[in-house]
Design brief:
Blueprint: E1 2-3, E2 7-12, H1 19-32, E3 37-42, H2 47-56, E4 61-63, H3 65-68, H4 70-81, E5 86-90, H5 107-113, E6 118-123, H6 130-141, E7 147-155, H7 158-171, E8 176-181, H8 201-218, H9 221-229, E9 234-235, E10 249-254, E11 259-261, H10 264-272, E12 275-280, E13 293-296, E14 298-299, H11 305-310, H12 312-323, E15 328-331, H13 333-338, E16 341-344, E17 347-350, E18 358-361, E19 367-375, E20 387-394, E21 396-399, E22 406-413, E23 421-426, E24 429-432, E25 435-436, H14 444-462
Parallel strand pairs: 2-5, 2-6, 3-4, 3-5, 6-7, 7-8, 10-12, 10-13, 13-15, 15-24, 16-18
Antiparallel strand pairs: 1-9, 11-14, 16-17, 18-21, 19-20, 19-22, 20-25, 22-23, 23-24
Helix pairs in contact: 1-2, 1-8, 6-7, 10-14
Length: 463
Amino acid sequence: MDNHISRVLIGAVQGRSGKTTFTLGLLKALTDRGLRVQPFKKGPDYIDPSWMTFAGGQQCRNLDLFMMGAEQVRRSFVQHSQGFDISVVEGAMGLFDGLDVEGSNSSAELAYTIDAPVILVVNCTRITRSVAALVNGVTGFDKRIRIGGVILNQVARARHEKIMMDSIARYCDVPVLGVLPKSKKVEIPDRHLGLIPAGEQDQLQDRIALLGDLVKEHVDVERLLQVAGSAAPLPAAPIEIASPAEKTVRIGVLRDKAFSFYYPENLEALEAAGAELVTVDSMQDGQLPDIDGMYIGGGFPEVMAAEISANRSLMEQIRNRIEDDMPVYAECGGLMYLARHIVVAGQAYPMVGVFDCDVEMRPKPQGIGYTIQKVLPGNPFFPEGMLVRGHEFHNSQLVNLGETLRYGFGTERGKGIVPGFDGLIYRNTLAGYHHLHVSAAPGWAAQMVQLAWKYQESRNRNK
């Protein structure tokens, strides 16, 4: 099946070049034109996609070659681009930066996989004529990809702009599609929380609007659309559309300002397998809904540790359900939530206390990057011996570990909880630092629903 999808990938030579700023402004400018735009983010990031979802008005999707593989990346890209006027993919890090010297899993490799023209964002701070050499270096480095245009960012003044424009016109065969001036008004502040608190919605909307206006004023959007439209039809395997499953179980999803890191594909896979998803707020809900299982994703519970800890009623009910064999799958922030305490700046905040350990926050990352886990015996969610790919990013460290803790993963790549192991097991609960994308373990959702169904049946028999 050939799919003609208008598309671009936004890349740069290095991080902090302005990719996110430009991408958000472009999404806003395109939607203001009345176009339906599908945003994508390269890599496992949760935070940038939350901004892109807000700016584009559509759920941003992740494309990750390490976790998903090339065929699944193409399949997901084609599937989620259907019905949209243009798909915009934001790259990560430098365009050619990957896991090795071959550049595997780089933004360039992703551009090649989905055959997307690249819009190159260049940070022009302290550079003039040399920008032409930089552009030529990028265009000649990997002939498999096509640089469709250049965005000059952080341009100081008219003379600065003229020298760069003239240099690129003389020495390069790539058009300049826009020139963004220096402006502190449109800088995106670093945010830790994936969800934006309600009180900040107006401020965020204003910032996105400013970025949109900046792109409208300084970028040739019409020409950029022509570049996007010049992308060749993308061959992909037929999209499999599963029939909606009968909802047989209810799975609670802890989702609020502290727990916001969920891939939409994971939630959709649970629904497709027969789960009705029920949102639970760790700080506001004093009563646990009538559920048959729980999914506790990542986030930053340490930021809201006092508020979370104050909700003892909910935590006690969750612990009782876990003791009763309710299945719970928890990732990173979820692991922290199920420990005895979260310790922040010397202050210990009581948590659910399912696992015999505490969590201590550290000033620097304790684990960051892609992971490969080998499933150990007794893991309730995966078959023994299976290799599960994912990623980790955490500043916390488990301390005061009890001697009876059991592990569900042998870590073949990554830091894990202790050297060589991740994924604590207690009854039907699995909690680790490993973040999962369902593409790396397609049977996960069905097993989660199956465990929840068995738990539901057990409760019904005991009534």
